[in-house]
What we know:
By secondary structure, the chain is mainly α. It has helices at 2-8, 11-19, 25-32, 40-60, 72-79, 86-111, 117-123, 130-139, 152-177, 179-182; strands at residues 191-193, 196-198. The chain has a two-stranded antiparallel ribbon.
Amino acid sequence: MLERTLRVLEYNKVKEQLLEHTASSLGRDKVKHLVPSTDFEEIVEMQDTTDEAAKVIRLKGSAPLGGITDIRSNVKRAKIGSMLSPNELLDIANTMYGSRNMKRFIEDMADNGVELPILETHVAQIVSLYDLEKKITNCIGDGGEVVDSASDKLRGIRTQIRTAESRIREKLENMTRSSNAQKMLSDSIVTIRNERYVIPVKQE
């Protein structure tokens, strides 16, 4: 009976339109699995929640959902001790920021006299993890690269690598300038190929 009713009401088309307005993968996943409730109290609460969300949009135009992504699988892997990539850690930090920002947004509206009891209850469950968020963003750049300042040991290793690379390049450049080497080279330049320094040798 329910399936027939949903088909007559073109419920899937309604969900497709709603999907176009979602701001995160979490929201899209929730819409895809959304089914009408038959519980009266739940229906009333959902309608009240919708009224509050509509009030936010009417007063503010939108809600700040930027940065929030689906990190559930990353968190599960971290719980069992799996290693996360820099980009995965960055997604977690960005979601921490987005959640913290959303909580502050709703609380500021409430402080200014806007009644949002249901949304306030939801954001009250958000725990600020600012210290962890900053630790991640201080160690990983926007492009997902681990920065030198992530640890003293990493900074030291990368300094050694850069010093070694500089010495290798300097020696190769000296070689290309020597009269004996120039006889065997097609050009007096040092290039990088497959992450290695190379000099162009003449073909016999």
